[in-house]
Each structure stands twice: as structure tokens, then as C-alpha cells.
Amino acid sequence: MVQVDFRSRVPIYEQLVEKYKELIIKGVLVEDEKLPSVRALSKELGVNPNTIQKAYRELERQEYIYSIKGKGSYVMGRQDRKNNEEKNKIKNELKKVMTQAMYSGITFDEIKSIIDEVMNERGI
């Protein structure tokens, strides 16, 4: 299912990450589907198991897969990934705005007051 180009300048683990992301995004690999074990994929592709493990770790970091110790790696649900991606995007935007606010002289108490105001408006 997955192939790597040994002549490419792109590292093998990056090729694997991109191929698996593509398969997951296109729906070829579905939620909770088990991925091949590190050893099995390593043997199939003729690649060092550490390379496969590195690719799986990166996919997990990017929240495309999750691992269960002793069981293997599985495809993460789209909704979970979408929510996490959205949360990370919002967190990054908040950090930028907070930095701008600090440079503009807005104090922590003023920021806290704004947060309280928004929470009260939303009934939280």
C-alpha cells in the first residue's frame, strides 16, 4: 500500500508521514484502523525499523494516529483531529494577540478582566 522512493532527497520517514497522511485524509485508512506493525512495515519496505518508528511518532505528534502500548498504532478519528487542529490554531492566535497586548501595555489584570467579561457574556 505504501511505497518509498530510495532515490529521493526527501528522507524516508518524511515520505512515510506524507503518504500516510494522504491515505488518512482521502479516507483510504479509516478511523480506528490498525496500521502495520513497525516490524512488519520495516520488513515489507526494506527499511530500518527506527525509520518506521520515527514516522509513526511524527504522525502521532501531528495527531493523525494514536498508539496503544502493546497493541499497535491506529488511525485517529477525523473529528478528534479536526478539533485538536482547531484548538492548536486558536491557541497560537491567542499567544500572538497576548504578546501584542503585552507590548501595547495592557496589563495582566486588564486581560483577565476581558476574559471574565467574555465568559460572563457567554454564560460560562
Count helical runs.
Answer: 5
Task: Describe the main β-sheet briefly.
Answer: 2 strands, antiparallel
In the predicted model, the low-confidence regions spanning at least 5 consecutive residues are none
Q: Roughly how much helix do the residues carry, as a percent range?
A: 55-70%
Indicate the CATH topology of the largest domain: Arc Repressor Mutant, subunit A
| Structural class based on helices, strands and sheet pairing | mainly alpha
CATH architecture of the largest domain: Orthogonal Bundle
Strand content: 5-15%
Protein name: GntR family transcriptional regulator
GO molecular function, one term: DNA-binding transcription factor activity
Organism: Oceanirhabdus seepicola
Domain HTH gntR-type: 10-78
Describe the model.
- The protein has 124 residues and is mainly alpha-helical.
- The protein has 2 domains: 12-76, Winged helix-like DNA-binding domain superfamily/Winged helix DNA-binding domain (Arc Repressor Mutant, subunit A); 79-122.
- Helix content is 61%, strand content 6%.
- It has 5 helices and 2 strands.
- The chain has helices at residues 12-25, 38-45, 49-61, 78-103, 108-122; strands at residues 65-68, 72-75.
- It has a two-stranded antiparallel sheet with strand order 1-2.
- Helix 1 packs across helix 3 (49-61) and helix 2 (38-45) packs across helix 3.
- It is elongated, with a radius of gyration of 21 Å.
- The termini are far apart.
List the helices and strands and how they pair.
Layout: H1 12-25, H2 38-45, H3 49-61, E1 65-68, E2 72-75, H4 78-103, H5 108-122
Antiparallel strand pairs: 1-2
InterPro entries: Tscrpt_reg_HTH_GntR (IPR000524), WH-like_DNA-bd_sf (IPR036388), WH_DNA-bd_sf (IPR036390)
Keywords: DNA-binding, Transcription, Transcription regulation
Protein name: GntR family transcriptional regulator
